[in-house]
């Protein structure tokens, strides 16, 4: 027997139990406007808020919390003890690590990976297939939807672009060769150099200061 906590429109939590499948609670889910997709797996002691949507074959770990109105995409994976904020959107196939925290109204792109214990702030955007390392605290995001791939500052002086994640220094040294492998034209190469320059300024002006603030 597994236990789950569901939240109603009055923000009150109520405990329920099911034996084999979450579909045993179909009536209670419908009352709360909660949608659970085909083949989705819900771990013991998970909490699901009012109006939340969980896609087909998604996996919600033990003790994870899904906020009101949050959307979990198909095949997405939410680790044990992870917290997904109100109205947050987790893309198809994205992976949220154990004990990670995703803020209210944040957006995680499809195929993105958020490491164990990482923290993404309210309304931050993480691009498609971006990778955020474990224990990273990204309070303020920086996301650009470029002509070829999205570019995302993912904390710790790193940038994700397409399926590549490197430090700012590594991008500066190797960007041209990576761009050639991706088939970028010279015009696109110059476009993304501007994006990397903007993110470097953002990192230097804000993130380094943030990292040195006392706890």
TrEMBL record:
Protein name: UDP-3-O-[3-hydroxymyristoyl] glucosamine N-acyltransferase
Provenance organism: Rufibacter quisquiliarum
Pfam families: Hexapep (PF00132)
Family the UniProt entry places it in: Belongs to the transferase hexapeptide repeat family.
Keywords for the protein's UniProt record, in alphabetical order: Acyltransferase, Transferase
GO molecular function, one term: acyltransferase activity
PANTHER family xref list: ACETYLTRANSFERASE
